[in-house]
Write a structure and sequence with these properties.
- The structure holds 3 protein chains of 3 kinds.
- Chain A has one domain.
- Helices cover 82% and strands 0% of the residues of chain A.
- Chain A has 10 helices and no strands.
- The longest helix of chain A is centred in the middle third of the chain and has 33 residues.
- Chain A is globular, with a radius of gyration of 21 Å.
- Chain B is built from 6 helices and no strands.
- In chain B, α2 packs parallel to α6 and α3 packs antiparallel against α4.
- Chain B is an all-alpha fold.
- By secondary structure, chain C is of the alpha/beta class.
- Chain C is 36% helix and 27% strand.
- In chain C, the strands form 2 sheets. Chain C has a 6-stranded mixed β-sheet, with helices on both faces. In chain C, strands 2-1-4-5 form a 4-stranded antiparallel β-sheet.
- Chain C starts with a strand and ends with a helix.
- The chains are: A mainly alpha, B mainly alpha, C alpha/beta.
- The interface between A and C is large, with 39 and 43 residues.
C-alpha cells in the first residue's frame, strides 16, 4: 500500500540535505522562477506597469511640449521619471501577492536563509523592470523619432534599475505590512533613490548626446557605489523586516 | 503622573536663559556685517540649528542600529524623539535660511546642495513618521523604523554628494549670482563668540527637547500598558 | 519530540503567553483547545518558527528554537487557515516550487504520491485559483507533507469548509496521523477533533490550563472537560 511505502522511506532519501550555497541558490532561483511563471500566466503586473508607463509618456508629451529642440535634453529625465513611477507599481504588486494569500509565511517556513527570499524577489522585480524598460525604449523612439538604441544608455538603465530594485524590494516588504500599503512605498522610496535619479539622468543624457564614456565616469561610478552599498545593506537588514 | 525630574526642570530654565542670552549677543554683542547688514545676524541661529539638526540625525541613526541589536524599546523611543526634533530643527534652518536668502540673493529658495539635501532629509523624516503611523504592533513599528532610519541615513550623504557633483559639473544656478551662495564672509572674534554661544544654546535646547520627548514617549507607553490591563477585564 | 518550557510572548506591552509549558511525545496527536484570543495561533506560530519567543525554551525534534530554526523547519509541516498557495500556478507547479525550496529528493515521484494522497491527482494541471476552498486546504496539506516532516502543525484547518470538504479533510488528517507523525492541531470546534486527537490540551490565559488523554476522558466527556478547564483559575 502506498502509505507503507511512504512510511518506509521516512527518514532516508526524502529528508533534505544540510544548508549549503547550493540550496541558497536553488531557493533564490525557485522564487524568481515562481514569480516569472506566475506572471507569465496572469500578466497583471506587467500589463499594469506597461500601460502606466505609456500613459506617463503620453502625459509628458502634453505637459512638457517636447519639440525637437528640447527633446534631446529632456528625454533622459522623462524616461527615468517613467521608470521610477512604473517601478513602484511593480514592486507593490509583487509583494502584495505574497502578503495577501499569506504566502510570505509559506516562504518563511522553508529551511532557507531569509536573504534568499530577498534575492529571489529582487531578481524577479528586476526582470519585470527590464521587460518594461525594453518595451518603453522602442516605443519612445518611435513616438518621438529619437534613436534610443545606445549601448551606453542601456548600460545606465541596467545599473540604475539594480539600485532602484535593491532598495525598492526592501522598502516594499515593509510597506506591504502597513495599513497605508500602496501609497507608502513611493513616499519611502523616492527620497532615498535620488542619487540614482541624478546619476542615471546625467549619464543617460550624456550618452544620448554622444559624450564619451570616460566623461561620464563620475556618474557611472556613483551608480555602482550606490548599487553595491544598498544591495549589501538591504540583504543584511531584510531579516528584521520579515521576522516577527 | 511622574513629575519632571529636577535635572530636567533645571535644564528648562537653563535653556531659556541661554536662549535669551544668545539673542542678546546676536543683536547687541556681535558687530554689524558690512555686506549684508542686519539680515546677516540670522546666520548665527541658522547654522546652529543646522548643525544640531545633523546631531539629531546621527542620534536617530545610532539609536536605530542599537534597537536592532538589543530589541530594547527604549532605543526606539529615543530614535523617534531624535527624528521629530531634528525635523523641527531643520524646518527652522530652512526658514531662517530663506529669510536670509531673500535680501541676500533675491530668491526664497536656491537649489544648492545643502538646502536641497536638507529638504530631502525632511521628506525622509516625514516618510519615517508616516511609516510608523501605519503600524499597530510596537515591535514591528520599532523594527521598521530602525531599518528605514538606517537606509535613509545611508542615502543622505550619498545624496548630498550627488547634488554637489551635479552642481559643480553644471554650475548654472537657477536665478541669481552664485558668488555669495556659500555666504562667505570672514568672522571677527566677536562673531565667533556669538556663533559658538549660539551653537551651545541650541545644543542645550536640543537635549532639553529630546529629554522631554523621550519622557513623553515613555509615559505614552505606560498609558498603553494601563489601557491593556483595564481592557483585559 | 516537542518540548516547551516557560514560554513567554509579549507584543509590545501586552503579554499573550505567560510561562507556558508543553510537551508532546513522538506520534501523539494533540488537540489544542481554547477560546478565541487565548493565544493558540500565537503559540502555533512560535512553534512554526514564524515568531520569536520573548522568553523561554523550545526544542523540536531535538533542535532549539530560534537558534536552530532552519533545522527545525525541515522537520515541520504547517497548515494554517490561509492556504499559502499561489493562485496563478497549477497544483503541480505549487508543489514543485515548495519541493525545490525544501530540497525534496525524487521530486516528480513525490509530487504524484502527494497528489494521490490528498485526492487531487486529477486536478494537477489546474490553476489553484480555480480550486474551491476545500481543495485548496487539501493541497495545502499536500504541500505540508511533501518533505515528509516529523511534526505537523495545523491551525484551525477546518475553517470555512463545508461538510463534505471537512470529511475529506478528516480522512487526510487520519492518513497523516496514521503514519506516526507528531501532530498539534488547534481548534475551537470540539466536535471536529474529538475523533482525531489522542490528547486534549486547553490553552487559557496564556498557559496550558488542563491536559487529558482521550483514554482517560472517554468519548463524550471532552466538552465537559473543556468547560471545566475554562472555569478554573
Amino acid at each position: 500500500m502506498k502509505s507503507e511505502k511512504l512510511h518506509a522511506t521516512h527518514d532516508s532519501s526524502l529528508v533534505t540535505r544540510r544548508s549549503s550555497p547550493g540550496s541558497f541558490l536553488r531557493a533564490v532561483s525557485a522564487i524568481a522562477w515562481k514569480d516569472l511563471a506566475a506572471e507569465l500566466r496572469s500578466r497583471e503586473l506587467l500589463s499594469s506597469m506597461l500601460v502606466f508607463a505609456l500613459l506617463v509618456i503620453l502625459i509628458f508629451n502634453f505637459a512638457l511640449e517636447l519639440d525637437v529642440k528640447t527633446r534631446s535634453t529632456v528625454t533622459a529625465g522623462v524616461l527615468w521619471v517613467t521608470f521610477a513611477f512604473a517601478g513602484t507599481l511593480g514592486l507593490n504588486r509583487s509583494m502584495a501577492v505574497e502578503k495577501d494569500r499569506g504566502c510570505l509565511d509559506g516562504l518563511l517556513l522553508a529551511p532557507v536563509d531569509r536573504s534568499a527570499i530577498y534575492f529571489g524577489k529582487a531578481i524577479s522585480n528586476l526582470a519585470f523592470m527590464f521587460i518594461v524598460e525594453a518595451i518603453v525604449l522602442p516605443v519612445y523612439s518611435v513616438l518621438y523619432n529619437t534613436n534610443l538604441f545606445n549601448l551606453g544608455l542601456i548600460g545606465v538603465i541596467l545599473l540604475g534599475s539594480v539600485g532602484y530594485v535593491a532598495v525598492g524590494t526592501l522598502l516594499a516588504s515593509m510597506a506591504v505590512q502597513t495599513r497605508t500599503r500602496d501609497v507608502l512605498l513611493p513616499i519611502l522610496l523616492f527620497p532615498v533613490v535620488i542619487p540614482i535619479m541624478i546619476a542615471a539622468v546625467k549619464a543617460s543624457s550624456g550618452f544620448l548626446q554622444g559624450l564619451e564614456t570616460t566623461e561620464l565616469m563620475t556618474w557611472i561610478n556613483l551608480l555602482i557605489v550606490y548599487d553595491v552599498i544598498f544591495v549589501a545593506v538591504a540583504f543584511m537588514v531584510f531579516d528584521y523586516v520579515v521576522e516577527e | 503622573m511622574e513629575p519632571q525630574p529636577l535635572a530636567l526642570k533645571v535644564l528648562n530654565i537653563f535653556s531659556a536663559v541661554l536662549l535669551a542670552l544668545a539673542t542678546w549677543l546676536v543683536f547687541f554683542y556681535a558687530p554689524m556685517e558690512l555686506v549684508m547688514g542686519q539680515v546677516q545676524r540670522i546666520f548665527y541661529f541658522h547654522v546652529a540649528n543646522a548643525w544640531v539638526g545633523m546631531l539629531g540625525f546621527m542620534v536617530a541613526a545610532v539609536a536605530g542600529i542599537a534597537y536592532l541589536r538589543t530589541h530594547d524599546l527604549m532605543w526606539d523611543i529615543i530614535e523617534q524623539a531624535a527624528v521629530e526634533i531634528s525635523l523641527v530643527f531643520f524646518i527652522t534652518t530652512i526658514v531662517t535660511g530663506s529669510i536670509w536668502a531673500y535680501p541676500a540673493w533675491g530668491t526664497w529658495w536656491t537649489w544648492d546642495p545643502r538646502l536641497t539635501t536638507a529638504a530631502i532629509l525632511e521628506m525622509i523624516y516625514i516618510a519615517y513618521l508616516m511609516l510608523r503611523q501605519g503600524i499597530e504592533d510596537p515591535d514591528r513599528r520599532a523594527r521598521f523604523g530602525a531599518v528605514y532610519t538606517l537606509i535613509g541615513g545611508l542615502s543622505v550623504p550619498i545624496t548630498f554628494l550627488s547634488i554637489r557633483l551635479f552642481r559643480t559639473i553644471h554650475p548654472a544656478l537657477i536665478g541669481t549670482a552664485s558668488a555669495a551662495s556659500q555666504g562667505g564672509f570672514d568672522m571677527t572674534p566677536r562673531m565667533l563668540h556669538t556663533f559658538l554661544f549660539g551653537l551651545l544654546t541650541f545644543s542645550v535646547i536640543f537635549v532639553t527637547l529630546l529629554w522631554h520627548r523621550i519622557r513623553l514617549g515613555r509615559l505614552a507607553g505606560k498609558v498603553e500598558q494601563m489601557k491593556l490591563e483595564v481592557m483585559q477585564w | 519530540m516537542i518540548e516547551v518550557s516557560k514560554l513567554v510572548k509579549r507584543f509590545g506591552l501586552k503579554t499573550v503567553l505567560r510561562g507556558l509549558d508543553f510537551q508532546v511525545q513522538e506520534g501523539e496527536f494533540v488537540a489544542l483547545l481554547g477560546p478565541n484570543g487565548a493565544g493558540k495561533t500565537t503559540f502555533l506560530r512560535i512553534l512554526a518558527s514564524l515568531s520569536r519567543p520573548s522568553l523561554g525554551e523550545i526544542h523540536i525534534a531535538g533542535y532549539a528554537l530560534p537558534a536552530q530554526a532552519a533545522a527545525v523547519r525541515r522537520q515541520l509541516g504547517v497548515v494554517s487557515h490561509m492556504p499559502l498557495l499561489y493562485g496563478d500556478l497549477t497544483a503541480e507547479e505549487n508543489l514543485r516550487f515548495f519541493g525545490r525550496m525544501y530540497d525534496v529528493q525524487q521530486l516528480d515521484q513525490r509530487i504524484s504520491e502527494v497528489l494521490e494522497l490528498v485526492g487531487l491527482a486529477a486536478r494537477r494541471r489546474d490553476l489553484v485559483r480555480t480550486f474551491s476552498r476545500g481543495m485548496q486546504q487539501r493541497l495545502a496539506i499536500g504541500r505540508a507533507v511533501l518533505h515528509d516532516p516529523e511534526v505537523m502543525l495545523f491551525d484551525e484547518p477546518h475553517t470555512g469548509l463545508d461538510q463534505d470538504a471537512c470529511d475529506m479533510l478528516d480522512k487526510v488528517l487520519r492518513d497523516v496521523a496514521a503514519r506516526g507523525r507528531t501532530v498539534v492541531m488547534t481548534s475551537h470546534d470540539l466536535a471536529r477533533v474529538e475523533d482525531l486527537a489522542s490528547r486534549f490540551d486547553v490553552l487559557s490565559r496564556g498557559v496550558i490550563a488542563a491536559s487529558a488523554s482521550r483514554q482517560s476522558l472517554g468519548k463524550n466527556n471532552v466538552l465537559a472537560f473543556y468547560r471545566q478547564a475554562l472555569q478554573e483559575k
